[in-house]
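[User] Could I get a sequence and structure tokens?

[Assistant]
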Amino acid sequence: MMRLAAPRPGYAAVSRWFLAAALAGLLVADLHVTTLHPFADLARLLDGLVRPDFVSVEGWSVVYTVAFAVLGVGLGAGTGLLLAIPFARSRTVRLTCAGLRAVHELFWALLLMQVFGLSAATGVLAIALPYAGICAKVYAEIIEEADLAALRVLPAGTGAVSAFLYARLPEVAGRLRDYTLYRLECGLRSSLVLGFIGLPTMGFYLESAFRQGRYAEAGALLLVFYGLIGTRRLWIRGWTVPLLLVAAPLALPPAIGHAAVGPSLARFLGHDIVPAPLRGAVLADPETWVRLWAWLRPILMDQILPGTIQTLILAQIALAATALGALLLFPLTARRFAGPLGRPLGRVLLVVVRSTPEYMLAYCALQLLGPSMLPAILALALHNAGIVAYLMGRHADALPYRADAPTGLNLYAYETVPRLYGQFLAYLLYRWELILRESAIFGILGVTTLGFYVDAAISELRLDVAVVLIAATAGVTVAVDALSRGLRRSLRIDTLPTRLSGPPPVAGAPEGA
């Protein structure tokens, strides 16, 4: 009997599903504004940006921010390159990388602080660990996409390492360099955010300035950070990279409360993160597992389940808001819509938005609007809409339009958006996992996502509970990533580019090429 294949969902169906899920989330989300004068606080913040107090900026915080980023990204990218070689052939490597990148840098930092204290090792490793997983995946994709012609002319019996170094690496070196430079920009954002948990980067002084109402200092710190991001291509060059790698370890801050790493690591692995019922217990005793379930059940029901629901609600609303924001903003960077004068301004605006870490945006919005889901939604939507809109503008510039193409709204609605919609969905589905990852961490700011329970467990030194919650967060993130990849395959958009550092589309090339 002939089996009937299930129909594949189309662009419209998937869009409706995600929109319906976001609307359902809005019905139960906490979106209250609890501050008395949000617009007055916003006016003070804008005044601080207009009249920044650069003299008050702590110069070493800028140095530490760059040093953490350079070393964290350097270590993560180097490890990622090594893992990328066996990535396609080894399921163990792929699962390891998925676990590394599924845990946010702040979660890694909170765990590493239990071993290394507030030291340079905590900051560097908190960036390096997830970036190793991210870089391994992306580098493996770049290597797999490379031209294999050079491999075919190698002598018989050439080893795998030699074949990679002499035949594949020269082909992909430029794209690996471009992605690593973009990842350094992300590392600067991560380094800044680590200041919110006590490391002496710019984020530490930014939080202090906000808490004390020193908006001129906060504005100066933000502008200096944007300057770092905006001038990255000037101070990160081939000849400066070795200098930065040598200078960064020398510029790292001293440890605060020097931890005895050996004993701390032994205690952390052998006691702190071991579930309480298993410490010193006899594993062969059935009562041990009864006690373990009695310990685990309330964590599952009272923390993981409600935290996961809130994380998914926040991520889904933010994803829909990202989609709407990207559709509204991408014409600002497209030549046919913004024109020669408006396009550079639009690009600057979107670069600023995408360069601001979501956590920092959420923190600022929290000061203006009060504790609820609304600051987190706004932060995620602004940051990710800036990224997607910037990329969509590049694709729009590469579209070949007819000589008699319409203009204005008709050009947007009937010529541009329909032709870019597959690429638009590819970007959104790719960002879905990243939005969920950030949604979980916003619990540290008081939103009752999974991060809220992680932060509470670490504050109470219940590290065994914290590790279970972080593992649950990673599991949800990996599941969403798998669902995202499945949807991209089903929509036949899995081959479309999704990397921010990818080459711009070629004008006149067939769509999806």
Observations:
- The chain has 20 helices and no strands.
- Confidence is low (pLDDT under 50) at residues 503-513.
